[in-house]
């Protein structure tokens, strides 16, 4: 019996899927009124995986720092309110990921880079 051939995906595509999953988790946590630290973690992970996708797509290394990654990509992080709520953290993460998605679409217009 022959083994099924897995669908080939690129590492940036896999990382982008991680970003989408993390945003989905953050959305679920907000809708379920879960504690702020859980939402903050999911939002941070979404932005981080989006940055890692873009850096990898550009052939640049990941230094482990999201802010420096955004600087290298020339993308401004959208900040939550002065007193962030879970909802404002989610909105800031979604807007930052949208900016990264726009950058990726300019690099590879054949993909939607939806989230």
How would you portray this structure in words?
This protein is mainly alpha-helical and 115 residues long. It has a single domain (12-107), classed as Up-down Bundle (Four Helix Bundle (Hemerythrin (Met), subunit A)). It contains 4 helices and no strands. The protein has helices at 11-31, 36-58, 66-73, 86-107. Helix 1 packs antiparallel against helix 2, helix 1 packs antiparallel against helix 4 (86-107) and helix 2 (36-58) packs across helix 3. The longest helix is centred in the middle third of the chain and has 23 residues, at 36-58.
In short:
The protein is mainly alpha-helical and 115 residues long.
List the topology elements:
Blueprint: H1 11-31, H2 36-58, H3 66-73, H4 86-107
Helix pairs in contact: 1-2, 1-4, 2-3, 2-4
What kind of oligomer do you see?
Answer: single chain
Query: The CATH topology, please?
Result: Four Helix Bundle (Hemerythrin (Met), subunit A)
What is the arithmetic mean of pLDDT? 89
- CATH architecture descriptor text: Up-down Bundle
Low-confidence stretches: 1-9
Main attributes of the structure:
0% strand; 115 residues; mainly alpha; 4 helices
């Amino acid at each position: 019996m022959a083994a099924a051939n897995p669908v080939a995906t690129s590492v940036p595509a896999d990382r982008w899927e991680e970003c989408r999953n993390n945003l989905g988790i953050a959305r679920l946590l907000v809708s379920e009124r879960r504690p702020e630290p859980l939402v903050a973690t999911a939002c941070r992970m979404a932005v981080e995986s989006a940055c890692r996708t873009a850096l990898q797509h550009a052939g640049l290394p990941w230094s482990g720092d999201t802010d420096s990654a955004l600087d290298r990509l020339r993308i401004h992080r959208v900040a939550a309110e002065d007193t962030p709520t879970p909802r404002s953290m989610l909105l800031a993460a979604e807007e930052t990921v949208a900016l990264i998605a726009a950058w990726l679409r300019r690099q590879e217009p054949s993909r939607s880079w939806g989230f």
